[in-house]
Amino acid sequence: MQVQPYLFFDGRCEEALEFYRKALGAEITMLMRVKECPDPLPPDMYPPGSENKVMHASFRIGEATLMASDGRCLGKPVFQGFSLSLNAPTEAEADRLFAALGDGGQVQMPLAKTFFSPRFGMVADRFGVGWMVIVAA
C-alpha cells in the first residue's frame, strides 16, 4: 500500500509544477488538461475558460510521487493541517532547498540546528504548501 499526496492548486497548478521543477528538480511524469478528458464533464465542474487548466498531473521529487490538479479553479488554494517533509542529504543542500522553497513564500521556522537534526526548518512556499526541510542526524 502507498499513500501519495494530491495537491489542489485551485487554478495555479501549472505555475506550481514549474516552480517545483526549478526549485526541487521535480519531474512531471503525466499532465492532462481539462480539454483532454476523454469523458464528458458535468457543465458546472469547471468555470468557463478552464479548458487549458490541469485536470490531473503526476510528478516526482526524488523517489516520491505526488499528484496535483487545478481543482475547481476558484483561485484560492488552501493548504492546512499538513506539511510535506523533504529530507536533504547534506546541510548545504538543505540550505539550497529551503531558500528555493522560501522564494516568494513565508518562513515559519528558520533553518537551524536542533536537538534532532543538524538542519531543520519550516517554510510555506508561494502557493501556501507547508514544507519541513530536514537533514537526518
UniProtKB/TrEMBL annotation:
Protein name as catalogued = VOC family protein
- Spell out the Gene3D superfamilies in the cross-references: 2,3-Dihydroxybiphenyl 1,2-Dioxygenase, domain 1 (3.10.180.10)
User: SUPFAM superfamilies this protein is in?
Assistant: Glyoxalase/Bleomycin resistance protein/Dihydroxybiphenyl dioxygenase
Task: Give the superkingdom in one word.
Answer: Bacteria
Q: Which residues form the PhnB-like domain?
A: 3-134
Q: Which organism is it from?
A: Rhodoferax sediminis
Lineage from the top down?
Answer: Bacteria, Pseudomonadati, Pseudomonadota, Betaproteobacteria, Burkholderiales
